[in-house]
Amino acid sequence: MLTDIEIAQSAKLSHISEIADQIGLLPEEYEPYGHYKAKITDKFLDRMASKEDGKLILVTAINPTPAGEGKTTTTVGLGMAMSKIGKKTIIALREPSLGPVFGVKGGAAGGGYSQVLPMEDINLHFTGDFHAITTANNLLSAVIDNHIQQGNQLGIDQRRILFTRVLDMNDRALRNVVVGLGSRVDGVPREDHFMITVASEIMAILCLSESISDLKERLGKILVAYKYDGSPVYCRDLGVNGAMAAVLKDALKPNLVQTLENTPAIIHGGPFANIAHGCNSVRATKLALKLADYTITEAGFGADLGAEKFFDIKCRFANLKPKCVVLVATVRALKYNGGVLKADLAKENVEALKKGSVNLEAHIDNLQKYGVPVVVAINRFGTDTEAELKAVEEICIAKGADFALSEVFAKGSEGGIDLAKKVVEACDKPSNFHVLYPDEMSIKDKIATVAREIYGAKDVKFDVSAEKAIKEFEALDPSYARFPVCMAKTQYSLSDDPTKLGRPTDFTLTVREVKLSAGAGFIVALTGTIMTMPGLPKAPAALNIDVDDNGKITGLF
User: Is pLDDT of 68 > 80?
Assistant: First the structure.
């Protein structure tokens, strides 16, 4: 059997100009990055501003497990299958972070015969967007420390600097650091921290900005620190938001690539859903809606994180109205939620599957609260038995959700025809999309609403520091109280405890810290032990990656 990278390297790619022609882009509306990648410019959006949008489809999943659910694989395969049945379709995905690529998860370009290409480029440096975000972020950090070193005219309290440095790498040693050590000219010593780039507020800002002017304004709104007198310091006070926008100028342009079957795909932005808002850029999605009759996008991790944030943050800000939600589930994941160990998931166990099906049921219930039709994609693995697949189908029927078997990993578009037809049917059904909570609700009540309605929490506890931060933000500017909330929570459980599988009940969600992302326009609530700088495992995926003398990469998946 061929590996993912071997399948990708044996594919016949179309020149990017052919993909651009396929979706109606004029030569002046895109900028090639080699033969198989391009950035799409604002000229296309300007030309197509009055064109009616196509239909938006969100792909999400049940809670992820070590077994893997194949959400991106399903998204790509569904897009190819929609094209196969004659529907003008485009896929809109996030860019992979180097942290997971070199860590545990590996790449995020799909798998098997359902991939976006060139997968090596996409999973590594791609078009440099993440490097630009890292640079813009760390430019601001450098200016903060330089301002303090050069006399601190603003009176920044170095003990209350909120903005941290970032790196697109899992590096636990950088979580807590001291900067400014050495001689007097080396800066003022202070405690600092690193986050992974995808957790940066600048990543969120890039993904939510509609234009360069919007980007520059949002960057200026970043709350970076407090002064000795307790008043706030924003990025604009340091005068660096213009330079940061200049660094991000090209990163703001969405990237055009293709699938194994030459279906167009736009990949842009990559915030994690467990520590950020988990969606690709607004610009990419709106662009895709003009380019095709159907746009298929995804949101990170399970529906309790990615889908909730897609609906309550991205759709709220961008006025998007999805027509259908595809919920990816696997037999293996349901058995894992039913208590089966990873090593035993290949063995038939219908009883455990039924026990773990409460997780699937919870996500169906949650998605139905948003007023959008739900289709369950049963992502088939080779070890699934007919009895197990039938049990999943019966669960879907009992919950009133449409479903289809997906075999896109093994068969490409041919394995997603039934799913594609179900999705087209669902898009034609009545849809009454609405967000979960209104802008007017208080910050604490918004957090509690998500915790109770989506996670199933019985109660919510706010640590003293979280309570204090909320009051501080509300006092800074009344408009902050109207912001949506971005929950930072483990992806492995509906609760804030990764060991509680299935559908936990009678638990209290603990909010230990609350942060303001004023430029992005949301409030971040950190729960449990969630980390904004992940660490590498004992045997990271990087140990398997290599390149030969001809530049051929191996071991990437």
Answer: no
Query: Scanning the structure block, which residue is given the tokens 């007198």?
Result: 229
For the chain, the maximum distance between any two Cα atoms, rounded to a whole number of angstroms, is 72
Joined tokens for residue 190: 């202070």
The verdict on pTM exceeding 0.85 is yes
Whether the CB-CB separation of 263 and 40 falls below 8 Å is answered with no
Helix (H) or strand (E) holding 486: strand 485-488
476 exposed, middle or buried (CB, 10 Å; 0-12, 13-18, 19+)?
Answer: middle
Task: Give which of 55, 32, 22, 36 is closest to 288, Cα–Cα.
Answer: 55
Query: What is the predicted pLDDT for the residue at 66?
Result: 80
Calculate mean pLDDT across residues 457-482. 96
Amino acid at 56: L
**DSSP reduced 3-state for 487:** strand
What is the model's pLDDT at position 531?
86
- The answer to whether residues 557 and 106 touch, using CB atoms and an 8 Å cutoff, is yes
| Helix 386-398 with 350-368: angle, nearest 10 deg | 30
The pLDDT tens digits for 366-400 are 999 999 999 999 999 999 999 999 999 999 999 99
Say how far apart CA 476 and CA 25 lie, in whole Å. Answer: 45
Are 74 and 408 spatial neighbours (Cβ–Cβ below 8 Å)?
A: yes
> Counting beta carbons within 10 angstroms of the beta carbon of residue 59, is it exposed (0 to 12), middle (13 to 18) or buried (19 or more)?
buried
pLDDT of residue 366: 97
Question: Span 293-303, mean pLDDT?
Answer: 96
Q: Give the DSSP per-residue string, 197-257.
A: GGGSHHHHHHHH--SHHHHHHHHHT-EEEEETTS-EEEHHHHT-HHHHHHHTTTTTSPEEE
Q: Which residues contact 398 (CB under 8 A, 6 or more apart)?
A: none
Residue 358's pLDDT band (cuts 50, 70, 90): very high
Return the C-alpha torsion angle 411, 414, 418, 419, nearest 10: 60
Question: How far is CA 393 from its chain centroid?
Answer: 28
What is the rounded CA–CA span in Å between residue 390 and residue 387? 5
